Model the fold of this input.
Amino acid sequence: MDSAAAVEQFDCPMCEAPAGSSCRTRGGKVAPKYHTPRFMLVPQLRAELEVRTPAERGPGRVWQAGPALDVAAPASAARPTRVGYARCSTAQQELDSQLDALKEAGCEPVFAEKISTRVKVRPEFAKAMGYARTIKQAVPHQRMIFTVHEMKRLGRGAAELLAIAEDLRRHDIELELLSGPHRPQAGHPRGQEQRPAPLGGQRLPGPVRRRLGYSRELSTAPTPPVGRANPV
Done:
């Protein structure tokens, strides 16, 4: 089954196009691509950033409903969906080590950028968070994991980390760090994964630890060293 046919098994949660029809714009035209919450209902397409409407569906033409189909029930993928995020602060720093680690962890897609955490708007970070939320909204029972190499790639300071942690918690998205003593074990079968430690065992500001569900004992216990940190 091609991508368009797979997507059109489902009603669109955004434009309310019925199963068997292409997505439509607010102006009543055939949309040039399927809306993200709709194609996210297809497990094998969840790594895609977009799915284009085939030329034979007439993108840009006046929208008309296609042949009615029985609506398919969205299914959770057997494995969790991991979205990766990599960041460094300057153009002189390299991202390859982070990208390799995220790929090895099974992240797809991976969003990356060279930008300081002092910059309030980080475009690729916003895309990564939006992607994770969209999948979770489209398929609530799908396990979604937001993965970074280490804590400092996420943000600077307790307030920002707390805000990110709360956003993920509110959308039922897990947070995984690949560095530290609780990193995922190499060769661990992806189909039988344990849930990741909330923040990979790295030292966190107390409010962030508590918000992520650490026990009182764990939040006050000394954290094992995680090795020399890379420059931010």
Remarks:
- Residues 88 and 131 are 20 Å apart (CA to CA).
- The radius of gyration is 20 Å.
